[in-house]
Specification:
Largest sheet: 12 strands, parallel
Strand content: 35-45%
Number of strands: 42
Number of helices: 6
Structural class: mainly beta
């Protein structure tokens, strides 16, 4: 009997071991697919060992753009359609989906995989396994900058007058899913994955939502992001892993993560090209700029996101929001780590008291597009968000801002800006920015949200900033220590550019309630009062080439409170 059953075992491709394989689920799969020749009884099932049971779950099918439901799907010569595959999937099934133009597919799937036997949809070019993405999207790494159905399966919606004609592309409401190597174009929501233990890899999504300038007419210059329309990739569920995804020109949100415990993201990029035009006349822009590029939202915890890129082209009508943690009220986002990031011409940002224990480290925040506006490219710690840490990060023409305002999606019960925030081991380089590297408030006149306990530790500020601080809101517990400030050309304390009492009637100016210690101030900047502050020439090795490490004879060596060198300790500018 066992020898006979072995002939019915189907190939399995590297799935993880499990200790639970359910006969009822197996039976449901067999009956639903009419594979009666493969049916075994409960008595036969009970005598099989673990590996035999696992293999009986699995079947391999082929899918192509020319496939149909009349085929058996068991070979490349008899492929299924994608819609038929999604309608007939069962735990353990592997669907190899050939490159091609699948058109404006709109399909939802609700059948779960099971632990150790997910349902897998794997795109390929010429033969299964020939697309492998490492360190980024395979199309981008292959020099492709647009949808190419010859490279991977492409789900291509139709667009009329720069507006998609289809609302949703593929929707997966399933647990234990593997989705790899797919392209999407058009739609308002091209791809949504809602379920636990999903693996989403090497997704390319382009031009979602409306990009017709006439749809932007109801947005004022104070909210210039365009029509809030278009999502690149929506993810929801615990233990989701997503990697090597590239999202281009999603009108509202590039990647959105919601209701997720312990998500993992690696080597994902959100790029915004559209939305270029005059700031005060955004209806003349060339499309709809992404508002939230990489958004970690409500009911999320324990995320680790490595090597995340958000890039916004020069001339956009708004910097939008780059990497953002922003939950709704009473639905926390907590304990997230962004390790390795590059954000250009946008922001990193945290908002609201339900946003706690967020860490950004090993990144670059760069501005290549000076817009001369009050809303600039920055690290924005806002609206009572708590215990935010930014460390080992290089700021190029960008700054850290603590501020608060009455956000319409949250009650006005919070009265704070940043609370218990730490900026550690960071380098701030000015190559022409008119702004300060540090700011408290500096926006939303008339709203007095207070900064509480902001620590600047082991940072270097260099390159000719016009001032160190801009301050126009209440603050307390500001600590500045173990740092180097070189080349500041004016006061370190400022109010609104137009002076107190203007731009809406602030009640400032406010004092900067700060304690300076173990820090060096040089080249045009008066040494403030405090503990162990000095005014020596710092002795940078090669500042013209952004090397702000210290020479061996620098007076900054070993002078910090902790016995280390003053200033930025990493001493390199990481590559984008």
């Amino acid at each position: 009997m066992k020898e006979l059953l072995i002939t019915l075992i189907f190939a399995i491709n590297g799935f993880v071991d499990t200790q639970f394989i359910d006969y009822d689920t197996y039976l449901n799969k067999i009956i639903n697919k009419d594979h009666y020749s493969c049916y075994i009884s409960k008595q036969q099932w009970d005598v099989l060992n673990f590996e035999e049971k696992k293999n009986l779950y699995s079947q391999t099918y082929f899918v192509s753009a020319l496939g149909n439901s009349a085929n058996n799907g068991l070979s490349e010569q008899n492929p299924w359609s994608l819609a038929h595959a999604m309608s007939n999937a069962a735990p353990g099934d592997i669907f190899y989906v050939r490159a091609g133009n699948y058109g404006a597919v709109q399909q939802s799937m609700y059948q779960d995989g099971v632990e150790g036997n997910p349902i897998s949809f794997i795109g390929y070019k010429n033969k299964p396994g020939d697309i492998v993405a490492r360190g980024g999207n395979s199309l981008q790494q292959g020099g492709k900058n647009a949808i190419d159905p010859s490279e991977m399966p492409a789900i291509i919606g139709t667009i009329t007058d720069s507006r998609p004609n289809e609302e949703n592309g593929l929707q997966f409401h399933v647990d234990y899913l593997v989705l790899r190597n797919f392209q999407f174009y058009g739609y308002f929501r091209p791809i949504q994955v809602r379920g636990h233990n999903a693996v989403v890899d090497n997704i390319y999504s382009s031009t979602s939502g409306t990009h017709n300038p006439s749809d932007l007419k109801n947005f004022s210059p104070s909210f210039p992001n365009g029509a809030y329309s278009g999502w690149g990739l929506i993810l929801e569920g615990d233990y989701i892993k997503f990697s090597n995804c590239f999202i281009l020109d999603a009108g509202a949100e590039g990647i959105k993560l919601i209701k997720s415990l312990n998500p993992r993201g690696y080597d994902n990029t959100v790029y915004t090209q559209k939305g270029v035009g005059p700031y005060t006349a955004h209806t003349k822009a060339d499309g709809n700029g992404t508002d939230y590029a990489f958004l970690v939202s409500s009911n999320t915890e324990g995320g680790i996101f490595k090597n995340t890129k958000v890039i916004r082209s020069e001339g956009n009508v708004s910097p939008g929001h780059g990497i953002v943690v922003k939950p709704n009220e009473g639905k926390p986002a907590t304990n997230h780590l962004f390790d390795g990031f590059y954000v250009r011409n946008s922001k990193i940002e945290t908002q609201f008291p339900d946003c706690t224990y967020i860490t950004f480290k090993n990144g670059i925040l760069e501005d290549t597009d000076f817009d001369q506006r009050s809303e600039v490219h920055e690290a924005n710690i806002a609206n009572g968000s708590r215990y935010v840490t930014i460390e080992n990060t290089v700021f190029i023409n960008t700054r850290v801002v603590s501020k608060g305002w009455n956000e319409h999606i949250y009650s006005d019960s919070y009265t704070s800006a940043a609370v218990d925030a730490k900026i550690r081991n960071c380098l701030f380089i000015n190559k022409g920015s008119p702004y300060s590297p540090l700011a408290i408030g500096y926006s939303f006149p008339g709203e007095l949200y207070e900064t509480k306990n902001l620590t600047i530790d082991h940072c270097t500020f260099a390159g000719g900033w016009s001032r160190l601080w801009e301050v126009d809101k209440p603050n307390k517990g500001v600590v500045f220590k173990n740092s180097i400030v070189d080349g500041i050309g004016a006061k370190y304390l400022a109010v609104y550019h137009d002076g107190p009492g203007k731009r809406g009637g602030t009640s400032g100016p406010f004092e900067l309630n700060i304690e300076y210690s173990f820090s060096n101030f040089s080249n045009g900047f008066a040494v403030p009062e405090g503990t162990s502050n000095t005014g020596y020439f710092p002795g940078f090795k090669d500042p013209e080439n952004d090397d702000y490490s210290l020479t061996s004879d620098s007076p900054m060596k070993g002078m910090a409170e902790d016995g280390k060198d003053l200033g930025y300790l990493v001493n390199f500018v990481p590559s984008p």
